[in-house]
Amino acid sequence: MSTFLSKRYMSLTPYTPGEQPQDQQYVKLNTNESPFPPSPLSQRLARQAAGDLQLYSDPECRKLIPVAAEALGVKEDQILFSNGSDEILNFAFMAFCDEDTPAVFPDISYGFYTVFADINRVPQKKIPLTEDFRIDPKDYYGAGGTVVIANPNAPTGIALSLEEIESILKANPGNVVIIDEAYVDFGCESAVGLIDKYKNLLVVQTCSKSRSLAGGRLGFAMGDKDLIRDLNTIKYSTNPYNVNSMTMAAGIGAFLDREYFDMCRERIMETRDYARKALEDLGFECLDSRSNFLFARHPGIDGEFLYMRCKEKGVLIRHFTLPRIKDFNRITIGTKEQMDILLKTVKEIMEEER
Amino acid sequence: MSTFLSKRYMSLTPYTPGEQPQDQQYVKLNTNESPFPPSPLSQRLARQAAGDLQLYSDPECRKLIPVAAEALGVKEDQILFSNGSDEILNFAFMAFCDEDTPAVFPDISYGFYTVFADINRVPQKKIPLTEDFRIDPKDYYGAGGTVVIANPNAPTGIALSLEEIESILKANPGNVVIIDEAYVDFGCESAVGLIDKYKNLLVVQTCSKSRSLAGGRLGFAMGDKDLIRDLNTIKYSTNPYNVNSMTMAAGIGAFLDREYFDMCRERIMETRDYARKALEDLGFECLDSRSNFLFARHPGIDGEFLYMRCKEKGVLIRHFTLPRIKDFNRITIGTKEQMDILLKTVKEIMEEER
Fold it and tell me: Residue B151: which domain range?
């Protein structure tokens, strides 16, 4: 820290992204990336755009928005794109929280929510998950602040039903309810269909997981046009050209190529079921994941030990030190071949420890 | 505005980017873009990166930083990249200004500074340019806040000398001095060489102009490692993966291809001198531009009228309504052919008005 840093941020603890070691080739199952490359159409359009970078990208995303709105079933003024969904989540914390409107979210969820609250100097109210790591919708009725719920939740992978989401929306008419659907395409119901009905609903999604564009950085929010206008006010006051031309083109390809999108997510769901069964056969408990990862613990193996030993053997998974979930590891669903390497590695570790 | 927007931002006036009409093909001289495509190496590396977008981009930019640091003559811990230089300027306003540390900048400069101050709820102190549109360094001695100076200044194009910059640094030891060098590569001296000497100096540059990557979005800041660490704290608390993989690759190409970079900026400076002389022959007054644009007025033609008539005739230039500069237009330096079209158009308009 320099002597010049504002006192506003002196005690800020930034977010820690999943590790990306460069020292060897890992089977990388730690940051919930897709094992599949972007759609061939995405790649082609992005490559074409690389030749015209001397011109600014379109801050209004006028070519991307109609294609995305059509694919997602929303109106063009109900959607906004950003440089990854983290940026849009930060915009939403800025726009809809303040000293009088706390951010209300589960104690175990995406670790960035607490950082977004801190950097915006917004009070936060963390609501514990139930004993079995579920979100109880009733805990969010009359929340007295902006509700932020990841659905499915991370790192548990457990989903709320659409009825449960709707009950939270109804019970918070005076506050925005942000549903962060980063992992929604892997077997969970989206709340997008409710945006015409609830003016307080903001749905945030990303192209990083189910559309294989993590490295392109393309997130989006959907909601009533007035909420979208508020987020645009923040965008045009911080970084109007926030989506670059190549990523914009890649996004157009991703939304047009529905077939590839469906193929990727179906393959990932099949592989998830396969890996879950195999882990359960080894004695692991896996939470009921509707995402592209499993959250698993074993009664006989320490969570951090398993993570460390897997890493030594060339397989990266993600361990969190939060006391309530320290027995678990979060394992991204890769290809079947990658999961077989993980399973073989876990078996070896269990045999070594016997 | 929705009923949910925080009172913090209710009176915010966002930045207005230069217009990008889609209704016809314009000779586009309104947003200071380069008339040259990105370096062939930039394009090739960006295209290669498009195939691997399923993996997150490297938040630490470990491949880009050594190449850029070498090209720019700084140490690796003295540089930070961002999604365009607007993002880094916002980070700097966040980190180094607050209620007790106002932002101090010229009354006529990059229009975004006042928006960055507003969105961060930071007081601002605007110092008038001199009668002849120059920055007087003495006006910034003991500024009592974070100094923000574009050098060369926009939209005037006039530059301060390195000695003048240094005098401001010396006279503000307790505050950060941000030198925004978006246009520095077109004939102005960079302050980068001073960062080892002044811990309060932050130099901000962009790849949008001289490196033809406006649509790729790649900005960077250089300064003492403690200042860079502060900016990283902000980055990792808002959007750690802020630079996408394709742009990171394009940036590597741009910094490696020194020859192309020098060729582009030399061509632009030559064309600027050519266009300036031709405009002066038509009776225009042009300020002494060290950038890739001219700021020009004519004693016989209203500034806004000229802008409007040029637009009707298919040539886009930029007019600002601020009273002190409303007689001027800002004209981006394009190719010689584009400038000839501009000159022909201006001549036509002058003849029609006679």
Answer: 40-257
